[in-house]
Write a structure and sequence with these properties.
The structure is a single chain. With 297 residues, this protein is of the alpha/beta class. The protein folds into 2 domains: 211 residues, TIM Barrel (Alpha-Beta Barrel); 68 residues, no CATH class. The protein is built from 13 helices and 8 strands. Strands 1, 2, 3, 4, 5, 6, 7 and 8 form an 8-stranded parallel beta sheet that branches. β5, α6 and β6 form a beta-alpha-beta unit. α5 runs parallel beside α6. The chain is globular. Bound molecules: flavin mononucleotide. The site of flavin mononucleotide has 20 residues, from loops.
Amino acid sequence: MEGVTEACFRDLLLERNAAEHLGGTFTEFARVVEIPLSRRVLRAHLGPSSTARPVGLQLMGANLAALAETARRAEEVGAPLVDVNFGCPAKGALRGSAGSAVLSDPARLERILRAVGGALERAPLTAKIRAGVDDDSLLCELARAAQEGGAAMLTVHCRTRREGYRPEVDWSRIARAVGSVDIPVCGNGGVRAHADLRRMREETGCALVMVGQAALANPWIFSGARVDATEAARFLTAYAESLRVRYAARESRIAGRLKQLLRCWEAGDLTGGEPASWLGERDPARLLERLRALARE
Ligand SMILES: Cc1cc2nc3c(=O)[nH]c(=O)nc-3n(C[C@H](O)[C@H](O)[C@H](O)COP(=O)(O)O)c2cc1C
């Protein structure tokens, strides 16, 4: 997820959840505009590969030539799979006719995937869609277009663009997508607890499940492990340390990242239901020290 799941966070998720529970992760989307992204930028998105589990590189764009060349370079720098984002509702994506802007035109979605897939020699191509723009009337057509375009797996975020990130979700849309294609479908949208992972598979027939926001509240959602406040604080202090080492991040930036997580954090009841006491901490050093003290307990 953009602005959150960079390499430090992803690595910690992979470390804390065994492969049988968390098979892999994706990068935040890498936006491709007029020119292909450089290998340096792509390496930065992928991060050092510290686990054997795949970190799929996600691209978003509308320029076929630039996307294709970026995909070729992504494979060259070791991306184990390349995903194309057709779900992003951000204005920037829409202005560039990328992300969810493509959902109104299944034929264009197919062309984009063909262009990206044509540039890949080994890495599988995958795609991520929303259920549609304003409604889900094109969902099955979009799923088939992804398959025809060469996607080896399709992630379906079951909300439409209009629905944004609203809490109510309709998983029957995932089931419809599953019924429309032969490739594996990864269901996404509205998973809140560990038990939902199995429930989504049972109710929709999807082969895989992707968790978004709930993983920020509880990084152990994949394994279902119940952690205490000490363990939860250890995750956050390890995250802080990793940001410091990898990006030479200053305390103020680290505290900003921590607060982003603490705003929705649930694991270990670390905030005791009172996130305000943490979010109101103005001194970054004090915020970090409070977490370290908890982590030492
Ligand atoms: C802050 C934020 C950033 C996101 N960035 C991305 C992204 O870069 N690529 C992507 O495919 N989805 C992105 N998403 C969407 C999530 O991956 C996911 O599809 C969506 O949140 C629905 O799943 P959930 O209900 O489990 O959160 C983002 C969502 C949020 C809230």
